[in-house]
Amino acid sequence: MSSFKAKPDVSKGERLLDKSLNQRVKSWRQAFMGQLLKGYRQYLEETINDPPKEIMEATRKYEADNDRYAQFLMEKCIKCQGQSISTITLAEKFMEWSQKMFGEQSVVYSHPKKYTGFLETALGKDPWYAEKDKNSAGNMVFKNISIKHLS
Asked: What is the C-alpha separation between 85 and 62, in angstroms, rounded?
């Protein structure tokens, strides 16, 4: 390893200390930043690609197979223009369905309100997009969605 000295001993691998280096480095800022940005653009163009189609399909399938909220919506809900269902009622129906499908242990929370956020997230995705609003009684509802009969 080299070291830099005012009076270097070349036999020890020492090199002459450049006392003006700090000033010269300051003048390199713009050129150095330009090189960094050029390298970054090249990195983006050459190394970042979309994941392979097979990976994306497998990921979507895995998500669908493991998303109970989306599964509930697909099996037990229908889009109905002009209909609405309270967020709590939908969560209660989810809890009933989950217990029937996966057993008592599948219902982690005892109060349906804990599930409304998860259902809202699932309802915010296609093809289920449903707006959240307040009904005339002031309760939160999902618009344009209805529940099928649970069997």
From this structure: 29
146 close to 77: Cβ distance less than 8 angstroms: yes
The per-residue pLDDT for range 31-64, each reduced to its tens digit, is: 888 999 999 988 888 876 778 889 888 988 887 7
- Domain coordinates of the chain in residue numbers? 68-147
- The answer to whether residue 67 scores a pLDDT higher than 80 is yes
Q: Report the predicted TM-score, pTM, of the whole model to 2 decimal places.
A: 0.55
Q: Residues 117-141: pLDDT tens digits?
A: 888 888 877 666 777 888 888 888 8
CATH number of this structure's domain 68-147 = 1.10.10.10
Question: At 112, phi and psi to the nearest 5?
Answer: -60, -25
Pairing assessment for the beta strands 3-5 and 14-16 based on DSSP bridges: parallel
